[in-house]
Structures are given as C-alpha cells and as structure tokens.
Design a protein that fits this description.
The protein is an alpha+beta fold and 81 residues long. The protein has three helices and two strands. Helix content is 44%, strand content 14%. It has a two-stranded antiparallel ribbon with strand order 1-2. InterPro entries: P-loop_NTPase, Type_1_exporter.
Length: 81
C-alpha cells in the first residue's frame, strides 16, 4: 500500500488501519505499506526506515521512537504540528 491513507481524516485512517491489522493477524498476511506519516505505522510488527535509498533503521514503533534516530525525530516533528 503506497500512502493508502494520506487523503483521509484521522478517524477514517484509524478504521482502515484497524481492519488491515485484524486481517493481518487473522490470516497471517504480510502487509507492506509506504507512508510519510509515522502514526500510520504504530501497529506495524516491523518498520523499516529508508534514508537516501538505504535502510537506516529497523524495529518496532516503540523501539525506533526510543533510539533517538531519524524515525524518532520524525515522530517528534509530527507531534509539534
């Protein structure tokens, strides 16, 4: 999914994310999502952060937020908006 929820309001985005997570967990699916909004990947099992075309970080949302790296800075910047 490439920026699948970028044009949606927060309520609609949350409903779609919850449905995708439920399907992923019930069916054992692998979902790959591209997003510029860190909040979209809170429920992801694994997040891969790309920087200049290379993997710069990999982990869960909580792991990446606690490292102080690029993902953590993106989350902090989003909270300031």
């Amino acid at each position: 999914l490439d920026e699948a929820t970028s044009a949606l309001d927060k309520l609609s985005e949350d409903a779609i994310i919850d449905t995708l997570v439920k399907l992923r967990d019930e069916k054992g699916l692998t979902l790959i999502s591209v997003t510029h909004r860190p909040s979209t990947c809170i429920k992801a099992n694994q997040i891969i952060v790309l920087e200049r075309g290379s993997i710069s970080e990999c982990g869960t949302y909580d792991e990446l937020v606690s490292t102080g790296g690029l993902f953590s800075r993106l989350v902090a910047a989003g909270e300031e908006e």
